[in-house]
Amino acid sequence: MPNVIRSFDRRPADLIAGVGKYSTATIHEAQGRLGALDSRIKPVKQGVHIFGPAITAQCHVGDNLMIFEAINLAQPGDVLVISAGNHAEQGGFGDVLASACRGRGIVGLVIDAGVRDGRGLRQSGFPVFSLGLSIKGTAKETLGTINHPVVVGGELITPGDIIVGDDDGVVVVRKDPAELALACEAREVAEAAMIEKHLRGELTFDERYASMRTKGATWSD
Amino acid sequence: MPNVIRSFDRRPADLIAGVGKYSTATIHEAQGRLGALDSRIKPVKQGVHIFGPAITAQCHVGDNLMIFEAINLAQPGDVLVISAGNHAEQGGFGDVLASACRGRGIVGLVIDAGVRDGRGLRQSGFPVFSLGLSIKGTAKETLGTINHPVVVGGELITPGDIIVGDDDGVVVVRKDPAELALACEAREVAEAAMIEKHLRGELTFDERYASMRTKGATWSD
Amino acid sequence: MPNVIRSFDRRPADLIAGVGKYSTATIHEAQGRLGALDSRIKPVKQGVHIFGPAITAQCHVGDNLMIFEAINLAQPGDVLVISAGNHAEQGGFGDVLASACRGRGIVGLVIDAGVRDGRGLRQSGFPVFSLGLSIKGTAKETLGTINHPVVVGGELITPGDIIVGDDDGVVVVRKDPAELALACEAREVAEAAMIEKHLRGELTFDERYASMRTKGATWSD
Amino acid sequence: MPNVIRSFDRRPADLIAGVGKYSTATIHEAQGRLGALDSRIKPVKQGVHIFGPAITAQCHVGDNLMIFEAINLAQPGDVLVISAGNHAEQGGFGDVLASACRGRGIVGLVIDAGVRDGRGLRQSGFPVFSLGLSIKGTAKETLGTINHPVVVGGELITPGDIIVGDDDGVVVVRKDPAELALACEAREVAEAAMIEKHLRGELTFDERYASMRTKGATWSD
Amino acid sequence: MPNVIRSFDRRPADLIAGVGKYSTATIHEAQGRLGALDSRIKPVKQGVHIFGPAITAQCHVGDNLMIFEAINLAQPGDVLVISAGNHAEQGGFGDVLASACRGRGIVGLVIDAGVRDGRGLRQSGFPVFSLGLSIKGTAKETLGTINHPVVVGGELITPGDIIVGDDDGVVVVRKDPAELALACEAREVAEAAMIEKHLRGELTFDERYASMRTKGATWSD
Amino acid sequence: MPNVIRSFDRRPADLIAGVGKYSTATIHEAQGRLGALDSRIKPVKQGVHIFGPAITAQCHVGDNLMIFEAINLAQPGDVLVISAGNHAEQGGFGDVLASACRGRGIVGLVIDAGVRDGRGLRQSGFPVFSLGLSIKGTAKETLGTINHPVVVGGELITPGDIIVGDDDGVVVVRKDPAELALACEAREVAEAAMIEKHLRGELTFDERYASMRTKGATWSD
Fold first, then answer.
1. For residue B125, what are the domain limits?
2. In this complex, is the C-beta atom of C5 within 8 Å of any C-beta atom belonging to chain B?
3. Is the ipTM here above 0.85?
């Protein structure tokens, strides 16, 4: 199999946006508590919300050679997903590569490594989800892959998978996006109603008490 | 002993406020360097300062069933203190439960787990001290306890213990609150005077030099 | 050798500023990927940028006795560099010592431990690079050293070494500062040109492709 | 309250042995999944099994001053339980203090720190449960407490509490020891029967399937 | 899709043994540095070497309910691969379940959690690869899956994948097993020849020097 | 400066053996609690004790290219000290390189990375101090240095520095070796006497009590 796979199927943009507009927590619950990446992968700047199909690269630890071709092959709206050895002490992505991503219309980066130029990244507004900031640049020496399946943050990500990221972290869509969007909407409507009630001091915990009683909980007088 | 203990004694609100208004660092020093929880337990949003009596729950790791009854039994002014397995990769508390807390007048949450809906929590203003943000929701299956003593962040917390939290983290009051408030005030007055002197370039380190000399320090010419 | 060495040579201030004005990531690359401290050492407040010669102290873990004499011996423009056992669960530096630093004209602190009074430190504007915030105060009992070489964040730091810190972390200058400043400037000029091109969607990755081809990369059709 | 509390009540030795002879895992289950210390606290040498009443000390991180008086006040059969800052990079206990423990008839040490002289400790046969081996000796400078309650490995330990340790780690007895011994025995008998059946290939999982069906599990054909 | 998938295709036993007899390090290199699980997953007892097709289960963190049905559905020669939340502070597998595995002819367990009854597991000889020993038993409350793909130790494992484990850890076969066996054999023959030469003091590093020279290494006189 | 420095001064072998025969813990104390590497660097096989002058290499994380030339330049009796990015998830040294080391008379390896072929390493008897075992082989692509000073486990090591390793870990000699040997001997004699007394139940803690009294300790009746 070639190292670099040039293309893959992307879902229609409106289908992606239909599910991607929901929060990562809502998507995770609505698809049966699946698809959340390791919580150490967090946005460099709070308040972002991204979604798009994954374009993937596998880098050797301490090396960013493959990121260049991934950017080159990306299409507007893609999310760059990089597996790089689950090591925070490296910063193989900074404001130069961020500018290349922005020039290509890439909507965000997800990487299991550090990144650098934190201030520049924040000012540019390019959304980056990483293990944090690290000064240490990488080598550009070792060959990896583009658009093979990768594991990032403990989750398998295949090119074209829909990625969603916000302040809570990153989730990959595991169900049919159209059905999932409906489930998310239903969940949000129900939660909004619950929140309104709860804020008035009315609790809606009956189901929880039933569960506790079934399990034999005992109460003091 | 029953799983759920409904009530416990709370100190008078003005006594709690009398000590709770001091910073966690001041309280920790003034009571003899006691009571600070593990520093990984931090506020989701900087700039908060909370205090109140602890209402406690013990949850199984990855499970939030017991939080519901803890909220139900709380009184206005309480701090919810949850022991949940010292595991950051779970988010069993988010904006729905935060709204229930706010509806009940609970003043904050302290938990040795992750939480989710970070943006919502920040916008709501409900103070949460946790191991960070995690998308991963919890099960609601396993029985635990309410208002038994718990260990959170390496500190024993008994229902009614006075909890104080700010940007530095969380401390539990270990001394008589009235006496401790006096010690805190004395400490803050002394520190304010030292800070003023220090800012003028006048150091007040004589005691430290005496200590170094006693221990046999040597100086170059 | 005495515990406390009173003085050491400092480079001229304009030489220090000449290299110190560049970002930590630029300096690290320009000197051959050297000198970056462990990425866990981060600023308490984002947006700072400091530089200056290191004045060093070695503290016992959980003890801050030696910080006092280090402040006393510092000169305006110095950066206080403290080796304290690589342990985050201690806060032996807070707003009182920060005021002493400010009174002496010290420009920042770098420490492999926690610090406390996070809100006060942020408000004062005194730049602190640490392992995070911890309530737990330290003892002042155990003798260490002043102005001996220390290892902080995995890097050897000798008194007078030029320290630079920003949002990405801390780097120590390892090359001749005048030559390094030239290399940094050349690098920034080149990067600015690349960024401008990249933002227009023009990639400048030819060198990377040559490297991939040399190593035998294969492409799908 | 004085720093050093000289004495506390110990349960009768046969009562302690009655429960202490069971494995830590059996005790933990039999008392309702309570009392297990953090799994990072492990024996230096496999194959040991200890039990006895806790005599406790609180040491400052990086300091072992209080261990001396704890040994001095111990009685034959005691287990030394030391809270020392939850920090593995210190070795404040080695073969000299182990010999003092053996001379006093202390049956083992539990500490949330490193220890040193690993080879000597193994050869001496004195059981040590710790965060591992560390060369780094401690200061003997800072006052702590003896026979106050301490938190070690996330569990509260009060002087006289029954401590049990084996290859799996350390557990503190939380129930009446006589009743707990009966529950342990019942559990071991039941498990021995299950093991015998299982080894013959007969599974005894009916209760689990009932549980899965209740929760709505579905099977492929 | 049902929670529990009863069956999957297994490769012929001799094909599995043909590749499984090589060391994990050899397999990893021979298939292009792929398939190694996180190094924290290690054998409870040194000196084991296992191989077989994976039967998989997904457990909720802190819960072992699904392990029972996985054992029930296993066939002789299978390796039980359990994804359980990447959390070491739980011991949901001990000597009772090990006896059930042995009764069924299961050849080993791979789990991203702790296990317990360390001494019993070692004595039984049943090979277990885990995050270490933990006393803490699990709940049996929450539904998961059987024979769905799982991620364990950062690697995707699909039922029927060939798993190999030895002292170095665990690897999953990613290439055609027959071809991979040939590549492993070639590698071992070449390494044996190199080792023999090296032990005589003859180095075989020419290729490395060519590489260093290409990259511009410089030597002192 | 060239990448590869071919030679450096070694102390006479009997001088090295004179201090190297003492335990790491004794050396660390006798030279003023200096020189101990991070406790995570541990022997692959217990019971070894090595000493010798350091020959150093700096490798890029995930790359072992420079180890080859370090072995080539080593002399009998040397200890190979490799700085490799403080990352356990790589195994760039196994039984092939161990045989090259043995053929050259190298007495041991110290590395801040993983190694592989654990069983082979143990059987060969070649002493290795590392972050543990990892299957994952490294690239051989990126240039580093030979015989420049390196930081390994938080300690600066310069070629020719005397390295000592045993079960407790690794220490680098920081004082004149002849004087240090005398201090070690004195310490061991004193400790042997203390151990003998302690085993008879006679404590020798007077100095500790004096210290506690000075600090104001209080005792219960």
1. 3-180
2. yes
3. yes
